[in-house]
Every structure is written in structure tokens, then in C-alpha cells.
């Protein structure tokens, strides 16, 4: 079967229960074919909207006074519904509770938390507001909510009387009970999550932590994947997000043939050195600083042997911790370049702009080493994209943090697993990867690509929707938002 047929088949699989789905996420895809698509979520959900008639609701990117009507437009078979979030609560919700409290806590980095009780109020208010807007679509068969922005959204929907299966997929990790304890109102938050019929996590590690948190903080037990609360049953399951490996492989071979200008100038800049690549949002969870230090060590041991192309797209730029991190990474890059570079050769090429998926695929393929070293990550799609884009006859090697969700999919015989806080370990792995014999590279790569093909992003969304459909509800109580 062709790739298109295969995709049709999978979308059909997602539709099997013939579900009219409402999808809610903080951001929605731009749906502009000319714009580079960042993120795998758009790739996963766009086909659900375009071809299977789902409604996708999320922020319009504009702020309002809370009275603007939903901007609903058609997209393929489905609809996109854009919402102006209320100005009054936006910053407390987005920069505050979601990204300065939940984000660091969920990534087990409590020292990065900047708590403010007021922000929690804004977070609740925005969740209530989004629930109110989603009420417009109460006739849909099921609701699929995405990510940590909306932990209490399911409870808000139920308060309004929505009586359809509601699921949440959490793209981030879930931390251990002692870290969760430091989140203001953590009990209330977790209690509200039990309004969902289905809670999806990336890995077993996350599931185990969530189970431990329920036990410690709410005195509830998960048995056979189900937790029973006053509201009813919540199923907790693992859905490790994937990518579309064929798309990356195709992009990689097509764009290499096209003689991309960036790539040919890159070859000149390498000047005989091998290439390593890092692609991240500029976020302190990504371990970019330690990676650069490690790279300095590789260059000290093997001068001029390797160049690191570090693509770091600025993110959440209003938040102080992100501004500091950006400055810190920039000064580390300059230091390593000053120490190990010359007038005509720079060991770290540092790029901040977005690339198209085709360009990224091509750069992944050009790199002998993919360096993915987050301190903690829900999954890390870059790790999977790097593998998918490799040349089957001459693949590169993945250096992967053992604390990325992807490390539950790829083992020590496949990727080179490292502790992302230890520059020595990362340096040794980069050096081993750069010098690995071809046979070993092929063997490791084959094993990884087989896994990627066995559970693609389309399988992931089909799997979640099928499981959600099993949660047809009987009588249920409500959980206060
Ligand atoms: P996160 O979701 O925390 O940003 P992931 O690695 O899981 O981390 O996903 C990042 C996604 O964004 C990947 O699909 C990657 O290809 C894409 N991406 C990151 N940086 C860029 C960039 N500069 N240009 C284009 N796409 C990017």
C-alpha cells in the first residue's frame, strides 16, 4: 500500500467508532501550507480535522475582554474554532501558573518554580472560560483535551452539564509526589483531573508517578489502570506519541536532491569536520547549556573534528527564566567558539530561526550525531525525527538523555543513553557516536526505525480516540472546578 493509502487507513481507524470529535489545545495549527510547521501535534491533529471532520478549538493568539464570539471557520471536512482569551487573566494563566509553576514542576525541576497564588486564580478562570466556549460544541460525541494548560478543563465541562466522554493527553512528564506537593493547590488540581474519563501519559514512568501522587495526595488507588473516585471511573493509560517516519524519510531524500543553499554552505563551513545536530525550543528543560559544555570537551580532546549545529528557537520570551537561559546559552556558545574556533572555522553554528520540516529532515540526515539531552522531557519528538530522517545505508547515531520519554522506547542497544547533567558522559557519547563503525550504526538504526514504523503519530491518535470511545458514560456526578 502507498503512504497515502496507509494514512487513509489509519484515519479510518481513528474514525472506526464514527466519532464526532472536539479537540481542544492551547494553540492550534496555523493551517498555512507556506508556514513552517513546528511541532508534531499539528501533524497529528490536522488530518483528524481535514479528513475526518473533527472540530479543533484553541486560542486565536489575540486577547480580548472575554465577550468576543468564537471565530469558527471550515477546514476540510471539519472546523477550526478560534478563541480570544481574556486579557485580564492571560498572563497569570500562561506565563504564570502554566509555565512558571506547572511546567517546571512537571519536569521535576522544582527550583525553577516561581509561585504566586494569584496565578492559580487566573489559570482557573481561563479554564472556566474555555469550558464555557467549548459548551457551544456540547453535541460532539467526545472531547479530547491536550496538555498541562487544561488540567481542570474536564471538570469545568462537567459542571456545565456536558455528559460526553472527555479525555486528556498530557504531553509533558508527570513528577513524583514530593515534587507535586510543591505545586499550590495540587490536591484540588488532581481531584479535578478525575473528571476525565481517560488520562493519557507518554510513558510508564509518568503513569507510575501519577499513581503514586493519587495514593499520597488523595488516598486513591489505581487498579488495573482504573481509579474510582466520587465522580466515577478514570482510566489511566500510556500513549507514547510518535511521528510520521515516512514523511521525514521522504523529505530527507527529496530535499538533499534539491541542493538546498543552506546545506551547501553548511558543507563548506564544516571544512572536513563531522556534523552533530541539536534542535530544541530554547527552554531550560532541554539541557542545551550542559550539551555545549560537553561539546567543548569533545573539541579539547579532538580539535576540529566535529561541528555542532545547534538550532534553538526562542520560546516563552516574556518569562524571566527563559531570558536568563537564552543569555546563558549565548555566552556559552561564544566561549566555546572563542576557545576552539579559528578565524575561518567555527565549531558551533547557532541558529535561532524556524526551519521548514523538509529543511530539518535534510539537516538531520547530514548529521552523523543527533544530540538530544533534555534534563527531562515528555517524549522528545526531535529524537524520533532524527532517526526517521537517516540514510538507511549510512545512518547517524542518536545520543539520548535517559530522562527523555523517548528513552523508554529506545534502549542502550539502539541509542547512546546519557545522563544529561554530566558533560563528561555526553562528551564521551558524542565522541563514540562520531567514530562508530558503519555496521554498528546500521544495526542500531534498524532497530529504532522498526519501532517508529510500528507506532506512528496516526496510530497514536487512532489509539487515543478508540480508547476514549470506550468511555461511554452512565450516571456521573460532578467535580467542582
Ligand atoms: P517540545 O514539544 O518541548 O518543543 P519536541 O522535541 O517534542 O519538544 O517537539 C519539538 C518540535 O518542534 C519537533 O517537531 C521539531 O521538529 C520542531 N522544531 C523545533 N525547533 C524547530 C525549528 N527551529 N524549526 C522548525 N521546527 C522546529
Automatic annotation (TrEMBL):
Protein name: Trehalose 6-phosphate synthase
E.C. numbers: 2.4.1.15
Family: Belongs to the glycosyltransferase 20 family.
InterPro entries: Glyco_trans_20 (IPR001830)
Organism: Mesorhizobium sangaii
Enzyme class, UniProt record, top EC level: transferase
MF annotations from Gene Ontology: alpha,alpha-trehalose-phosphate synthase (UDP-forming) activity
GO biological process: trehalose biosynthetic process
Keyword terms: Glycosyltransferase, Transferase
